């Protein structure tokens, strides 16, 4: 997958503060778009892309980390000859004064015949009432996007995936009950004698840390951490440090590596696996026993190799099918020319 880090290619659609969605466009959204939210990922499938007449189109609204978002696309470019894509805070005009959101996000254009070669761009920005959206004015040249052999448009459908990581929120969340209005100081609480944590307590103060086997973790990580120690009790038996901040960091790294390794093979990159390998080596150095996870890492590497080979074969097959189609067309043309050249212009009796 091609990956670009935001480095000045990221932009705000500066006129978006004046945008309004008409009822006509609301109908267009439901009929032309296919949408799916999966954890921190939102998938937007735009149908009949090449026939769209609107200057700009919106995805459905979606919720990630308690915040409502939507994607904004310019199919013919935002004053450039490229597809322009932005992440926008949905309903930003109705939010209370002073709201701000720090977000890091990736927007991926899926290459549908082989997702491994998809185009992804990453950026991070603070959004507020003055800058309610951010993204990529020049996501991909329109000529590349519309190339019939490019793989981005298949059956005139464009697939876009947005992965959103909300780093900080100032002001209320859009979905009630998910967080306090402002960021609260981090507190630490212990499990009950039976190892359980009160669900009411977790709902009341979701930012608190919970002690699991001597590691302070977020309430959302309690079940995950508990399963690690139940299935692999020796995992942290030789962890050397007693510093709780470091132990919390170690557990965050461990959980992140596990989640990454158990994604689908098409979602991995070589950089992912290199980062995971380095993290596992470091965790082993500080005393974690991760043979079971290293085994999973090797299995993922093998699956990735097979996936890469399948993608390569699919690409070769795609190229061969295209070449075969061209050869058939050339063959039919030359046959027609031969028939035309051998057809008699005069009857035999006219010659003899």
Automatic annotation (TrEMBL):
InterPro entries: MATH/TRAF_dom (IPR002083), MCC (IPR050804), TRAF-like (IPR008974). The keyword Coiled coil applies. Keywords: Coiled coil. Pfam families: MATH_2. Residues 39-164 form the MATH domain. PROSITE patterns: MATH. The keyword Coiled coil applies. PANTHER family: MATH DOMAIN-CONTAINING PROTEIN, TRAF-LIKE SUPERFAMILY PROTEIN. This is MATH domain-containing protein. It comes from Arabidopsis lyrata subsp. lyrata.
């Amino acid at each position: 997958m091609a990956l670009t880090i935001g480095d000045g290619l990221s932009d705000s659609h500066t006129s978006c503060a004046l945008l309004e969605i008409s009822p006509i466009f609301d109908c267009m959204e439901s009929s032309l778009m296919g949408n799916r939210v999966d954890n921190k990922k939102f998938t937007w499938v735009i149908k009949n892309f090449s026939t769209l007449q609107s200057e700009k189109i919106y995805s459905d609204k979606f919720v990630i980390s308690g915040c409502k978002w939507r994607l904004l696309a310019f199919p013919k470019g935002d004053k450039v000859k490229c597809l322009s894509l932005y992440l926008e805070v949905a309903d930003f005009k109705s939010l209370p004064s002073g709201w701000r959101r720090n977000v890091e996000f990736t927007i991926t254009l899926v290459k549908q015949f082989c997702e491994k070669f998809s185009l992804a761009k990453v950026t991070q920005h603070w959004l507020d009432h003055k800058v309610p959206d951010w993204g990529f004015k020049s996501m991909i040249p329109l000529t590349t996007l519309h190339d019939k052999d490019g793989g981005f448009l298949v059956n005139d459908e464009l697939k876009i995936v947005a992965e959103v990581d909300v780093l900080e929120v100032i002001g209320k969340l859009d979905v009630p009950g998910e967080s306090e209005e402002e960021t609260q100081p981090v507190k630490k609480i212990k499990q009950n004698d039976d190892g359980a944590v009160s669900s009411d307590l977790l709902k009341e103060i979701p930012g608190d840390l919970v002690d699991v086997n001597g590691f302070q973790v977020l309430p959302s990580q309690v079940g995950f951490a508990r399963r690690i120690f139940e299935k692999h009790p020796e995992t942290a038996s030789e962890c050397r440090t007693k510093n709780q901040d470091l132990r919390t960091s170690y557990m965050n790294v461990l959980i992140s590596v596990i989640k990454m390794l158990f994604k689908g093979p098409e979602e991995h990159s070589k950089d992912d696996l290199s980062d995971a390998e380095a993290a596992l080596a470091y965790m082993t150095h500080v005393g974690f026993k991760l043979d079971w996870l290293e085994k999973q890492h090797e299995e993922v590497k093998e699956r990735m190799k097979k996936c890469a080979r399948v993608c390569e074969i699919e690409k070769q097959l795609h190229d061969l099918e295209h070449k075969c189609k061209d050869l058939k067309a050339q063959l039919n043309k030359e046959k027609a020319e031969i028939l035309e050249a051998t057809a008699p212009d005069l009857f035999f009796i006219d010659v003899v």
